[in-house]
Every structure is written in C-alpha cells, then in structure tokens.
Amino acid sequence: MSESDSEASDATLLSRYAAGEVAAFESLYRRHELRLWRYLERHLGERALAEELMQEVWFTVAREAGRYRPTARFTTWLFTLAHHRLIDAVRARRPHVSLDALEEDRAWLPQLATEPAAGPLAAAVARDRAQALRRALGQLPLEQRDAFLLHLEGELAVEEVASVTGCNAETAKSRLRYARTKLRELLKEHA
Questions:
Q1: Number of alpha carbons in the 13 Å side-chain half-sphere of residue 35
Q2: At residue 118, what are phi and psi to the nearest 5 degrees?
Q3: By the 8 A CB rule, do 40 and 54 touch?
Q4: Which residues contact 117 (CB under 8 A, 6 or more apart)?
Q5: Residues 54, 58, 62, CA angle at the centre, nearest 5°?
Q6: CA quadruple 173, 167, 72, 64: dihedral positive or negative?
Q7: How many other C-beta atoms can be found within 10 angstroms of the C-beta atom of residue 108?
Q8: Buried b / exposed e along 136-154 (16+ C-beta atoms within 10 A)
Q9: What whole-number distance in Å separates Cα of residue 175 and Cα of residue 141?
Q10: Are 78 and 150 in contact (CB under 8 A)?
Q11: d(CA 179, CA 101)
Q12: d(CA 92, CA 180)
C-alpha cells in the first residue's frame, strides 16, 4: 500500500517522479510552489524574471530527479537551486554586485496578502503592507535579503541558510539578525 501524496515525504515524491510517476512531481510542485515563488519574487521585485527563474528551478528539479540523493532536506536542495539561479540573474543584471527564527519573523512582519482579505478595507491595508514589505526588502543589502527570505520563505534553519549561501553559520546568523533589525525599523509604522 503506497502512501498518499499528501503524506509522502518530498524525497519519496521525487523518487516516485524519477521512476516515471508524473503525479508525484505535480504534488511536490504544489507543495512548494508558493514559498519558492515568494522567495524569488520578493527577492527580485520583478514578476517576469521571478517566473522565468521559477521555471528554471523546477526544470532542474525534474532533470536531476534521478540523481537526487537526500543528504539534506529537499527544501534545502530546492532553495539552493533557486539561490544559484538568483545569483546568476543578479550578476547578469548588475555585475558590480557581490553575493558572497521563522515563527519569530512571521510574528512581527506585517501580514502579507497571502490569504484573501475580508472586505475592501482589509484588502487595501494588506496591499499597503505588502508594498511596504517589498520596499523594505529592497533596501536590505543583497546578502541580508537573501538570508532573510531563505529563512522566512524557504523555512530553512540558520545552518541550511549558511549551506545554501555558501557562508558559515555565524555569518548567516548575523545576516538574519541585521535583516530583522533593519526590517523592524523600516516597517515599524505598519506593525
């Protein structure tokens, strides 16, 4: 008896896809598409480029499914792929740029328009807060923004953020701390 897609681990779904089960890939995609999309779109602030990178990441997942070995969580691998595509995109656009606690973050960030707002006033407030967050994220240094979004959207632990970004855990922790401090400052009127 096989486990249902909603109960299957990410690694199991990827393995089933590698064995030819397309529905397993679709389940994996649905499970992670929104977080990955938010990571890319909020990092770049450009919907078209985020869509392009999103496709590239999922094409890579599909292409490499048979070679995937679960040495870390699937999300760590997925966001590492996304991070690499992001670095390439940023370098292509701005060659001079150098790129070298989840619940806590969600608690103080302004509520984003990820769920339908009740009524027009609530929808307007949610839009304003989402725009304020985008502007604030755009003011962070690239390394801090990347660490913060990997932690928030990718739900990656500090050690996983360090692994994805190629730095040590202390550097990743510092980047997260500086990002939180700056975002709190920039968003205090929207809290």
A1: 18
A2: -90, 105
A3: yes
A4: 123, 125, 126
A5: 170
A6: positive
A7: 12
A8: bbeebebbbbbbbbbbbbb
A9: 9
A10: no
A11: 12
A12: 28
Following DSSP, what letter does each residue of 75-91 receive, concatenated? HHHHHHHHHHHHHHHHH
As a whole number, mean pLDDT of residues 138-150 equals: 91
- Length in residues, the chain: 191
Can you tell me the distance from the alpha carbon of 29 to that of 94, in angstroms, rounded to the nearest whole number?
30
pLDDT digits (tens, 9 = 90+) for 78-136: 999 999 998 888 777 653 333 334 455 555 565 444 455 566 776 676 777 778 888 88
Distance of CA 89 to the CA centre of its chain: 15
Q: What string of DSSP letters covers 115-155?
A: S--SHHHHHHHHHHHHHHHHHHHHHS-HHHHHHHHHHHTS-
End-to-end CA distance of the chain: 49
All domains of the chain in start order, with CATH: 1-98 (1.10.1740.10), 100-191 (1.10.10.10)
Neighbours of 183 (CB within 10 A): 22
Judged on CB neighbours under 10 Å (0-12, 13-18, 19+), 172 is: buried
Indicate the residue type of 24. A
Is residue 188 over pLDDT 90? no
Give the residue carrying structure tokens 């030819």: 20
